[in-house]
Specification:
Largest sheet: 4 strands, antiparallel
Shape: globular
Radius of gyration: 23 Å
Low-confidence stretches: 1-64, 480-493
Oligomer: single chain
Helix content: 25-40%
Structural class: alpha+beta
Number of helices: 14
Number of strands: 22
Strand content: 15-25%
Distance between the termini: 44 Å
């Protein structure tokens, strides 16, 4: 893997370690960047690990590295958003329809589970999507109408039909990554409750996106938004994931030309944004860059502001530059950083209009069935995570340090992102709404305890060097050059044990006398327990 800094290709020295989060019981191996990033090391390791330099965190003067924060906040999401419900999906306790779950949450839960090496929760969250949301005409890839319906209620009842294309594309990528982990022996094979392997489901999803969710190679938000007019389509730029499309083109090479055109169309639309020179883009737009007039889910201010949907473009384009060195991504992110620096830097992170103005101060929203009132302006871990993603996405580590400091300021050592006391001007103070003084109360577990937690996590994982390109790292196996070293040589991967029939016995060496198979990636041998 290569990462691009200021136009120069820099080869990473890597330490390939990912930690089993569930009970922190097993230590396996997946890539983590050493150069200028925090290391993904376990906070309660099951085996003795070599000490490695931590230059990024030490330069920041922090004693709490991102690896620990990422693991702890994933545990919090599991506790509050998954384990508290019966479906196994990732639920939204404080959304506009409290306790619902959306397909986006399935993909986000799979993201965190994969990068925390938590295959058990990766499988269970995916299986929840399979059980409650998957709609299939058949298991034939060319059927073309397969997708995840986008919303269910607290108990799994369908409340929103049709796909959200960002969820489907993200799930496809994560299944491709999971398949790679299986191929090199890091993860175990798994078949969903619908009878699909990781690879099989990924191929079916990609076919469905290509055949039902594109219009002139522009990604639609689902199988809606289509139009015969250039000006009439409805697009969500926060869905664009050019780095993923590059991987899709290699995963299904017969369709590489299609995915290449989706990449190009994404950047064409990004550059059509009225805020492009400032690195700003609206939540919703038409293909020619004009307003949708309010079309689109939760289209606050007619969908014309950089709000919760669009701000994800910083994370997605940052990945495209860090993984593939895409210059168009860097231009947009450089514009974004020049803009926010001109506004005051990390202290100015927020949501913005396309002309660069902050959202109106007195605009508020109601969450959790109207029990929480909150300003639409948001200087929080959500906006800190995404602006930090933009900063590191430019490849400028020195710039990223400043935004990292702001993001970490919203973490107080618990298993969630957010301050016990809101440091923002809007938090816990009186503002005037419709001429009347109104208290905007403090929400100690910040926002929905859903969307904000994930976006903070994505930014932190980019700063921490955790969000790696598993496809590029593993498509040719596990290269010797990125295996971890100790003074004694290569550190051994945690073994797994099988009986002579090939049935898995787990990671603990058997104690019952007999003959067994001990396997590590690329190595298998018989052992005798006496």
């Amino acid at each position: 893997m290569k990462v691009f800094f200021n136009g120069t290709t820099v080869a990473f020295t890597t330490l390939y370690i990912m930690v089993k989060v569930l009970k922190i019981a097993a230590v396996l191996t997946v890539a983590t960047v050493v150069l200028s990033f925090a290391q993904l090391l376990p906070y309660t390791p099951a085996v003795e690990l070599p000490k490695v330099p931590d230059p990024y965190v030490s330069k920041l003067g922090r004693t709490m590295p991102y690896d620990t924060i990422l693991l702890k906040t994933w545990e919090g999401i599991k506790k509050r958003n998954i384990d508290a419900y019966s479906t196994g999906a990732v639920h939204r306790p404080k959304s506009e329809t409290p306790h619902d779950a959306v397909s986006e949450g399935i993909s986000y839960g799979m993201f965190l589970a994969l990068y925390c090496n938590d295959q058990e929760y990766f499988n269970s969250v995916w299986d929840a999507g399979e059980r409650y949301m998957w709609v299939a005409s058949s298991n034939i890839p060319n059927a073309g109408i397969n997708h995840y319906d986008w919303r269910i209620n607290q108990t799994g009842g369908k409340t929103g039909t049709g796909p959200a294309s960002d969820a489907d594309q993200d799930i496809a990528l994560l299944l491709i990554f999971a398949d790679q982990l299986v191929r090199v022996g890091i993860w175990e094979p798994f078949t969903s409750m619908r009878g699909a392997s990781y690879e099989q489901r990924a191929r079916i999803i990609l076919n469905s996106i290509r055949t039902t969710m594109l219009e002139s190679h522009f990604l639609l938000p689902g199988r809606w938004g289509q139009t015969s007019s250039l000006n009439g389509s409805t697009i969500n730029p926060g869905y664009f994931a050019p780095a993923f499309y590059r991987i899709f083109g290699e995963f299904e090479p017969d369709h590489k030309a299609t995915w290449d055109r989706v990449i190009d169309s994404s950047y064409v639309l990004i550059n059509r944004s009225l805020g492009a020179e400032r690195g700003l883009i609206p939540d919703w737009t038409r293909r020619n860059g004009t307003s949708t007039g309010g079309a689109g889910y939760n289209a606050y201010r007619g969908g014309d502001a950089l709000y919760r949907d669009a701000i994800r473009v910083y994370w997605r384009l940052g990945i495209d530059y860090l993984w593939y060195g895409e210059p168009r991504a860097k231009v947009f992110l450089d514009n974004a950083m020049s803009f926010i620096e001109s506004k005051g830097g990390p202290q100015a992170i927020n949501f913005f209009e396309m002309n660069g103005d902050l959202l109106p101060e007195n605009n508020v929203e109601n969450l959790a069935g109207g029990t929480i009132t909150r300003s639409r302006r948001e200087h929080s871990h959500l906006t800190a995570g995404m602006w930090a993603a933009a900063a590191i996405g430019t490849g400028d580590v020195e710039l990223a340090k400043k935004y990292s400091e702001r993001l970490i300021s919203f973490y107080e050592g618990e298993d969630y992102w957010g301050n016990a006391e809101d440091p923002t001007p809007e938090g816990g103070r009186m503002i005037t709404i419709n001429g009347a003084p109104t208290l905007v109360p403090e929400d100690t577990l910040r926002n929905e305890t859903y969307f904000d937690q994930f976006l903070a996590w994505f930014g932190a994982s980019m700063l921490g060097g955790v969000q790696r390109n598993i496809w590029e790292d593993l498509k040719d196996g596990i290269p010797v050059s990125i295996r971890p070293h100790t003074q004694q040589g290569h550190m051994q991967y945690a073994p797994k044990y099988y009986n002579l029939h090939g049935q898995p016995l787990g990671a603990q060496k058997p104690i019952v006398p007999g003959v067994y198979i001990e396997k590590r990636p690329g190595v298998a041998k018989r052992i005798v327990v006496r």
